[in-house]
Model the fold of this input.
Amino acid sequence: MRSKNAGAVKRNPEPETGVRPVGAESGFQGAPLPAGTAVMACKPSLPSDPSFTGLSASSEPAPWLNQVYCEDALAGLARIPDGSVDLLLTDPPYNLGKDYGNTSDQQSVEEYLAWTERWIDAALPKLKENGSLYIFLTWRFSPEIFVMLKKRMTMMNEIIWDRRVPSMGGSVRSFSSVHDTIGFFVRRKDYYFDLDAVRIPYDAATKKARSRSIFVGAKWLEVGYNPKDLWSVSRLHREHAERVDHPTQKPLEIIERMIKASCPPDGVVMDLFMGSGTTAVAARRTGRNFVGFELNADYCKTIAQRLAALEQPEPEPVAKPRAKPRATKAKPLRATDTVANTVE
Done:
């Protein structure tokens, strides 16, 4: 999910210049994309709400809707109108020295925090007044970045993502780090939040244990429980079907939970650091629109491929032929056998 944009703003052409939508069918498998190329590997959906800000007066989707721009987010944000985004969901570089094809994750502490503050100040005006923000962080920098955001928004939750790291190996001089920190922030009190869309169903044993009359008809028992602020979801391994070639790809389960809870249907999710494109994929799967940025051209190709795959019809399951029953030979009777004791 994480796009690793460079630490400094690149001097790109004006946002409207030289941009062309590119899909998987138009040469996207070939050479690296030029800066500012727009990735759109799926058809934009037309929102059902006529007051939706992504529509122009002619009821046509805005040109930036359902696109991922292959460029630095700080330069590309000028494309997005202020107050047009319902949810800002982003996974910026953690500054832990990873290689994302650029130096965005290899800055000094001072440079990293200053760059973070720049993109925060550039992105927040794009949110609607009742919009929300989720941000993935490492414990190393979450205190400083949370303080930045608290000066601008209201913090609702610190969510701990337990990555289910196997208990083997790790540090011998400190406790092993097995989680990511997620901040959930809102702009004002009437922010959009749909808890029912993300409740976790109770299992049959729990429902049976609460079968007394006082529980009959209880909504919470039928619709499930609040996911709370500790999310135990396995990080992606090679054997996971959704895994692609990206070092810090986030699971769809987590991203879809955030989108369902904090972005209304037909709303807009923006991700400044698209990485493998999980935010865009999750938005399409849940009936939302997306817009985002990714600096690495190889990751842009991955995003286009993942979005194009969503448009392909699922193959129908092939019925397996039934195996013919094996013929069994009757056991020959021995002289001491009777008919009664040979019946099995």
The chain is about 20% helix and 15% strand. The longest helix spans residues 109-123. The CA atoms of residues 313 and 333 lie 59 Å apart. Confidence is low (pLDDT under 50) at residues 6-32, 41-53, 338-344.
